[in-house]
Amino acid sequence: MNHKKAKYPINQSPLYKVNNLKSLAKILCVDIKTIQTIIDKESKNYYFSNLPGDKERALEVPKPQLKRIHTRINNLISRISTPDYLNSGVKGRSNVKNAKVHLGDKALLKIDIKNFYPSTTNEMVEKCFHKIFRCTKDIAKTLSQLCCVNGHLPTGSPISQSISFYSNFGIFNHLNIYSKSRNILFSVYVDDLTFSGQVIPKNFVDYVTSYIEKNRGYKCHKIRIYNSDTPKVVTGAVIAGHALKVKNSHRKIINSLFLEFDEKTKSHTIDSPELEHYFQVLIGHLFSAGQINGRYYQKGREIVEKRKIMKLQKQSDKST
Prior knowledge:
Elements: H1 21-28, H2 32-41, E1 46-51, E2 54-62, H3 64-78, H4 95-100, E3 107-113, H5 116-119, H6 122-132, H7 137-147, H8 160-167, H9 169-181, E4 185-189, E5 192-197, H10 202-216, E6 220-226, E7 232-234, E8 237-240, E9 243-246, H11 248-259, H12 261-267, H13 273-290, H14 294-309, H15 315-318
C-alpha cells in the first residue's frame, strides 16, 4: 500500500482563509491561551547562540513549546503542491536535484540572497499569510508573531525554509516567467538562485538583481556567471558538462577521514564518544557525496556494516 500523502493546492490548505483565533488554535493543536502566552514571551521563546564557525551570525532556535507549533505549521505547508523550480524543503528534491536540472553545456548564473532569513521581516511574513494564504489581517499578524523573532524569520527553526519561500512566492514566480521568456531555466534552493541557458545576457543579470532588491530589499551577493565549457559549482555539486561530480574539497575531507580510520578504531574503545562522533561524520559525508556518486554511497554502507560488526552504537541509539 502506498502511504504517500497527496499534495494539494494552497486553497485546500487548513491554513488558507483562517479568519478567527479559535480556528487557528484548533489547526495548530493548541489552545488560544497558549498562543497568547507565546506571543507575550516574544524572544524568550528562543535559545540564542552563534552559527557554528560564524561568530557574526546568530542562531535562533525555538524552545520546545514554540517548536511544536513551528513543526505543525511546517508540516501543513509541506503538503501544498509547489512549482517545479523549487528544490528545497520538498520531499524528493534536494541540493543535488537542484544542480542536476542545470546539467549540460550551458552558460550559468548563480545569485545568493544575503542574510536571507534575517532579511525576511515579520511584515513580509504577515503579508504572506494575508495575501498568499488569504487569512484575515489579525490572523496573519498572529501567525507572523508566532513565526518570527526580533522582527524576522529565525535562523534555526524548521519553519523558516517554507515560510521564506511563500513570503517571496510572487518574486520567484515572476523570475521564473521572465527566465522562460528569455529561454533560461530557473531554480531555487533556499537562498540560492540558479539560471542556465545558451547565453546569460548582462542585462538579464542586472534585471534580476535590481528586481529582487527593489521588490524585497534583499541584497544579492556571490553573483557569478560561468561559461558553457567551465565546471560550475551549484548547491554543493560540480556540473561538468552532462556529468555531476563531487566537489574536490568534499573528496579531500572524505580522504582525510579515511586516513584516520585505523588510528581511530585502534586507539579508542567502542564506547568512546570521540569514536562515535568520527563514524557519524564519516558516514554523513559518504552518504552526502553518495547522492552524486554511487561509489561513495556504497562506501557509506560498508562503513555502517563495519560499525555494526564492532557493536558500536549510533549516538541516537544510545540516547534512547
